[in-house]
Amino acid sequence: MRKIQFGKPLIGLEEKNAVQEVLNGDILVHGPKAVEFENAVCAFTSGKKAVAVSSCTAALHLSYFYLGIKSGDEVIVPAQTHVATAHAVEMCSGKPVFVDCETKTGNIDISQIENHITSKTRALSVVHYLGMPVEMDRIMKIAKKHSLFVVEDCALALGARFKGIHAGLYGDVGCFSFYPVKHITTAEGGILLTQNEQIAAKVSRQKAFGLDRNVGERKVPGIYDVTMLGFNYRLNEIGAAIGIEQMKKLPGILAVRKENYEKLTECLREIDEIELLQSTHSEFQSSYYCHSIILKEKHAAKREKIIENLNMMGVGTSVYYPAPVPLLSYYREKYGYKEIQFPTASRISNNSIALPVGAHLNADDMVYIGKCVKESIIKSEV
Ligand SMILES: Cc1ncc(COP(=O)(O)O)c(C=O)c1O
Q1: Which pLDDT value is given to residue 253?
Q2: Where are the domains of the chain?
Q3: Do residues 80 and 132 touch, judged by C-beta distance below 8 A?
Q4: Between 3.40.1180.10, 3.40.50.720, 3.90.1150.10, 3.40.1580.10, what CATH number should domain 250-380 receive?
Q5: Residue of the nearest CA to atom 16 in ligand 1?
Q6: With 90 as the cut, is the pLDDT of residue 305 above it?
Q7: What is the pLDDT of residue 46?
Q8: 214, pLDDT greater than 90
Q9: H helix or E strand, kind and range, residue 53
Q10: Ligand 1 center to residue 380 CA distance, Å?
Q11: Sequence-separated (6 or more) residues with CB below 8 Å from residue 23
Q12: Choosing a second label site near 86 at 20 to 30 A (CA), which of 123, 222, 227, 381?
């Protein structure tokens, strides 16, 4: 039987040697590797400035902290996302105002955004759901009309482009994740990408306690001033060294993900019991994070059984995401949200199964996954 992991970091000799090199030296933080990693991400995305941080959540938090989000402020947040997208707003005492997603891609339903904007709305966040880019030109039009700051949650979108421009570069900031199952990893880690040098300069201070000079900039060791409030959100040199090697492999990783995704689409297309989300077409270039199948209503009640069958056949699965964020206990209890407000996000959360397409897998694995999906559904019915 095959053993197909849902996600697997691709760590080779290059990453191991790079880590060894860092460990052989004396610089574990505040070093050149984090800067080199930032430059590599800028080169790949054609972004102006990148600020390496300890996670995507840290990048999101810094975005709202930079903006000065405070109690009484509202931020538009897609309902179908990871909780971090909303938590970052709460961490600044702002209120996330959730918007349902569209059926076709799982991305925020742009046609509903303006109904949720009030005089308190300060920012608009989007998530490129499973790496499928949001129509950013429509988002930016709304943002301009209402003077809103735009945060792109690009946790799953390294390699995604809309009209040829990389995700994260339309908005004021783009926040990326390098958690182990993402396109590339730094173990834990993230980056804040921006075309605005002032944002990058301020966030670089805020990620390191708000100190006015970092270690390399100090004339007298140990002497600095603190000019603003800040956190300890730096990316360490070990993670950055891994990230530099991973960035060299990224084009190859993305090519394999695309091939796998297309092969799996071919295998899944004939299965009547499921629907597929829209993948790359003309102006939308996905980063192919995973393939999420949506069970038709008639079969949705058997999802757990189907997942169990798939796992027993050696196919690793996941669910993106287990509930619309407003329906997670913390948000439901705090704001009183109801399922009826988020029918599309609820359908994706309740009926979907995420299948792997990572670069640790090949075309044969995709054929096997397709066969197992069909068999798992049949078996769940007996
Ligand atoms: C859409 C989204 N945003 C944010 C995050 C949080 O990323 P991190 O673990 O790097 O903080 C995730 C994690 O999977 C995510 O899926």
Answers
A1: 98
A2: 13-99+107-246, 250-380
A3: no
A4: 3.90.1150.10
A5: 82
A6: yes
A7: 98
A8: no
A9: strand 49-53
A10: 32
A11: 238
A12: 227
Residue whose CB lies within 8 A of the most ligand 1 atoms, among 53, 55, 57, 181, for a mutation test: 57
What residues are in contact with ligand 1 under a 6 Å CB criterion?
Answer: 55-57, 81-82, 84-85, 127, 153, 155-156, 177, 179, 190
**Pocket-testing residue among 89, 177, 325, 328, ligand 1, by greatest number of atoms within 8 A of Cβ:** 177
Please give, one letter per residue, the 3-state secondary structure of 89-155: HHCCCCEEEEECECCCCCCECHHHHHHHCCCCEEEEEEECHHHCCCCHHHHHHHHHHHCCEEEEECC
Question: What atom of ligand 1 comes closest to residue 181's alpha carbon?
Answer: 14
> Rounded distance, CA 18 to CA 238, Å?
8
**46 C-alpha vs ligand 1 centroid, how far in Å?**
22
Q: Ligand 1 centroid to 82 CA: how many Å?
A: 6
What is the whole-number distance in angstroms between the Cα of residue 333 and the centre of ligand 1? 23
pLDDT, tens digit (0-9, with 9 covering 90-100), for 50-102: 999 999 999 999 999 999 999 999 999 999 999 999 999 999 999 999 999 99
- Amino acid 348 reads I
Nearest residue by C-alpha to atom 8 in ligand 1 = 56
Nearest CA to ligand 1 atom 7: 56
Prior bond of 320 cis (ω within 30°): no
What distance in Å separates the CA atoms of residue 363 and residue 124, rounded to the nearest whole number?
39
Could you identify the atom of ligand 1 that is nearest to the CA of residue 320?
16
Compute the distance between CA of residue 125 and CA of residue 185 in angstroms, rounded to an integer.
Answer: 24
User: Which are the contacts of 83, defined by CB distance < 8 A and separation ≥ 6?
Assistant: 321, 325, 328, 330
- Alpha carbon 350 to its chain centroid, in Å, reads 20
The residue among 238, 152, 242, 147 whose CA lies nearest residue 192 is: 152
User: How far away, in angstroms, is 60 Cα from ligand 1 center?
Assistant: 9
Residues 193, 173 contacting (CB under 8 angstroms):
yes
- What is the CA(297)–ligand 1 centre distance, in A? 29
- Domain 13-99+107-246 in CATH 3.40.190.10: no
